[in-house]
């Protein structure tokens, strides 16, 4: 399935049905009077969060959504049927934005089953029964249905994950994800192997967490270079960030600082999120060189630095332990111990 995280669509709620012009006609009733019914209400535009969806690709081929109009009123004071509501199904994590310069947030769909009425349908018009009076016994006046509303909106998908992998291109993010989950992300020894975000479910010590792998970030990503601003949006909701730095690069410290500058420039609280720093591809560096680069990175960041190699699984256990701890997930053993310690006495 193709991945699409942004789409522009047109929405139109249903127009209300017209009121009816009708008069009562029965045997032996010479002057029955007006009995025109009201029109039905137009259909609403409703957005609903659906589990199991992780792309907006359907909106590339279907971009116009119009709810049906209400049915016109009829004689014998019968009100027309209301138009059916049109339900637009979107993935969890979808933001609905206005089509203005600021991309104003209208609603954020973050819970499965969440529903939001974006546009209400027009009300039905009144039939001629409402216009009768002591001086106008046979009104031929009716009220047309009220028009529905229309709107262009942007849909933007921000993936929901416990942890996010970030780093420059070819830092080993996809290799790490494949090594600790069943994800089948494309891996290659060249930059920008990953072209779209990937999700993987990591199971470690009885705990499952969702990890998001985004394409590599380069200088200027926060301003849209390499559409990095859209990629950064996918880790806004993550609880913890795992910052992977290629240990085989000439200056890991400079590489780390480049990515951090983009996080600060982007905003959205990314630079304040808990962060785990890890040097990757340690199997390609000599022990002496790795130790020197680790000391330099720890001195520059003031944080402990892990060393991992997804190819040999070295250091993976410690990295996953840190991810689970900072993501706020406790291993199954902790939960069972807490359950056994409880006593009603």
From TrEMBL:
CDD domains: Obg. One of its GO terms (biological process) is ribosome biogenesis. SUPFAM superfamilies: Obg GTP-binding protein N-terminal domain, P-loop containing nucleoside triphosphate hydrolases. InterPro entries: G_OBG, GTP-bd, GTP-bd_Obg/CgtA, GTP1_OBG_dom, GTP1_OBG_dom_sf, OBG_GTPase, P-loop_NTPase. GTP binds at residues 192-196, 213-216, 280-283, 309-311. Its EC number is 3.6.5.-. Its main location: cytoplasm. It is an enzyme of class 3 (hydrolase). Mg(2+) binds at residues 174, 194. Its cofactor is Mg(2+). Pfam families: GTP1_OBG, MMR_HSR1. Keywords: Cytoplasm, GTP-binding, Hydrolase, Magnesium, Metal-binding, Nucleotide-binding. GO terms for molecular function: GTP binding; GTPase activity; magnesium ion binding; ribosome binding. The keyword Hydrolase applies. Residues 161-328 form the OBG-type G domain. It is found in: Cytoplasm. GO terms for cellular component: cytoplasm. Residues 1-160 form the Obg domain. Monomer. Belongs to the TRAFAC class OBG-HflX-like GTPase superfamily. OBG GTPase family. An essential GTPase which binds GTP, GDP and possibly (p)ppGpp with moderate affinity, with high nucleotide exchange rates and a fairly low GTP hydrolysis rate. Plays a role in control of the cell cycle, stress response, ribosome biogenesis and in those bacteria that undergo differentiation, in morphogenesis control. This is GTPase Obg. The gene is obg.
């Amino acid at each position: 399935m193709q991945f699409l995280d942004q789409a522009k669509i047109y929405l139109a709620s249903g127009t209300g049905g017209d009121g009816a012009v009708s008069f009562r006609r029965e045997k032996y009733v010479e002057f029955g009077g007006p009995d025109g019914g009201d029109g039905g209400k137009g259909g609403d535009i409703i957005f609903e969060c659906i589990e199991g969806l992780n792309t907006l690709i359907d909106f590339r081929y279907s971009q116009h959504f119009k709810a049906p109009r209400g049915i016109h009123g009829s004689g014998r004071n019968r009100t027309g049927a209301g138009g059916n509501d049109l339900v637009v199904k979107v993935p969890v994590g979808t933001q609905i934005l206005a089509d203005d310069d600021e991309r104003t947030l209208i609603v954020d769909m973050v819970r499965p089953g969440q529903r939001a009425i974006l546009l209400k349908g027009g009300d039905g018009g009144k039939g001629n029964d409402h216009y009768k009076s002591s001086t106008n016994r046979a009104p031929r006046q009716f009220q047309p249905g009220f028009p529905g509303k229309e709107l262009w909106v942007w849909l933007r998908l921000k993936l929901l994950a416990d942890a996010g992998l970030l780093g420059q291109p070819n830092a080993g993010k996809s290799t790490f994800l494949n090594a600790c989950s069943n994800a089948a992300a494309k891996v290659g020894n060249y930059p920008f192997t990953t072209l779209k975000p990937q999700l993987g479910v990591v199971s470690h010590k009885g705990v499952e967490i969702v990890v998001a792998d985004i394409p590599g970030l380069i200088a200027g990503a926060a301003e849209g270079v390499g559409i990095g601003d859209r990629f950064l949006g996918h880790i806004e909701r993550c609880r913890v960030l795992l910052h992977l730095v290629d240990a085989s690069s000439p200056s890991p410290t400079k590489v780390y600082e480049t990515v951090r500058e983009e996080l600060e420039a982007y905003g959205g609280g990314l630079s304040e999120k808990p962060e785990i720093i890890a040097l990757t591809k340690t199997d390609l560096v000599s022990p002496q060189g790795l130790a020197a680069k680790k000391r330099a990175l720890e001195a520059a960041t003031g944080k402990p630095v892990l060393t991992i190699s997804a190819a040999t699984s070295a250091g993976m256990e410690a990295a996953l332990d840190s991810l689970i701890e900072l993501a706020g997930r406790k291993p199954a053993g902790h939960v069972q111990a807490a359950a056994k310690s409880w006593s009603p006495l």
